[in-house]
Amino acid sequence: MQAHTKKHPIETIELRFIGPIVNMAKAVETLKPLGFVDRSDSFPWREAFPEYKDEDLPGVCLRGSRHKEGITQKQLSELTGIPQRHISMMETGKRPIGKELAKRLGNALNIGYKVFL
Length: 117
What we know:
The protein has helices at about 25-30, 45-50, 55-70, 75-80, 85-90, 100-110. It is an all-alpha fold. Helix 4 (about 75-80) packs across helix 5 (about 85-90).
């Protein structure tokens, strides 16, 4: 039997409109005072960073998360119990990050562990 789960309140939404291009600027300016932001000039991150392949992403996320927290590989090693050389190998893509290690890294770096999988 499936149980109902509590839905989390949605903090933000994305709006999309179809209409005449000549009215676009007016629509954007009308919505700005209400807290909306024009993101029409954004593009997918994969286009901005074509040098990263899917297999590189866990290591890039690990390195970026560690940098965001301002800690060294050695400090992360002490926090997680993972040898520093293994952290280095994970960041360079030479060692996979399993679910258990991802959870330990996520806890230490204050980030959801799924970004490392």
